Amino acid sequence: MGIKDTAEEWQVNATATPFVGNKTSVRTDEVVMPDGSTVTRDYQVHPGSVAVLALDGQGRVLVLSQYRHPVRQKLWEIPAGLLDVPGENPLHAAQRELYEEAHIKAEDWRVLTDVYTTPGGCDEAVRIFLAREISDVEGERFAVEHEELDMELDRVPLEELVRGVLAGELHNNCLVVGVLSLSAALAGDGLDALRPADAPWPARPFEA
Fold first, then answer.
1. Could you tell me which residue ranges the Nudix hydrolase domain spans (predicted)?
2. What residues are labeled active site?
3. Domain check: are 29 and 64 in the same one?
4. Mean pLDDT over each residue of the chain, to the nearest integer
5. By the 8 A CB rule, do 27 and 16 touch?
6. Measured between alpha carbons, how far is residue 198 from residues 48, 91, 116 in Å?
7. What are the tens digits of pLDDT across the range 31-55?
8. Is residue 183 part of a domain?
9. Measured between alpha carbons, how far is 159 from 179 in angstroms, rounded to an integer?
């Protein structure tokens, strides 16, 4: 591969945390620039997330519609959730989210892609998994609350989702990245060439 992102850390002379929330916080760093000057950079500190693109045997993707207050829209998304425990295995977190949000399990898991959602203002890293050979989970559904009480579930053909993304009708970051990555993988080396589910993730190191 000709280009790839590389780890680098510029000198920080001072740091402060002016806001601490329930799940995230805001940090202010005084960063030394290449010319020796210093600037302040404010950014959200985030624990990281996982998302699951669950693909059924008919080429349909499991999606859910959920209200997102910051953008005042109900967005179609793929199952996703926070890495609540430091060092948590992202595959285990993804399996949990798929069960809790959709009452679904999967037999085949791959890493679809890893992204930073908004690296100019937040350190959130997301690992998007591809889950195949999916089936319903037996037993009672997980109890939902808050925005999830109004959640809708559907299965939509991949081609329809790609069309919706390119038409500007679907906007959720993980859904957009996930369906376009899946489309590219299908057109390229195939799904079996994707990284294994336990592939290293330097942005959020984890225990096996």
1. 44-178
2. 148
3. no
4. 94
5. yes
6. 16, 7, 19
7. 999 999 999 999 999 999 999 999 9
8. yes
9. 9
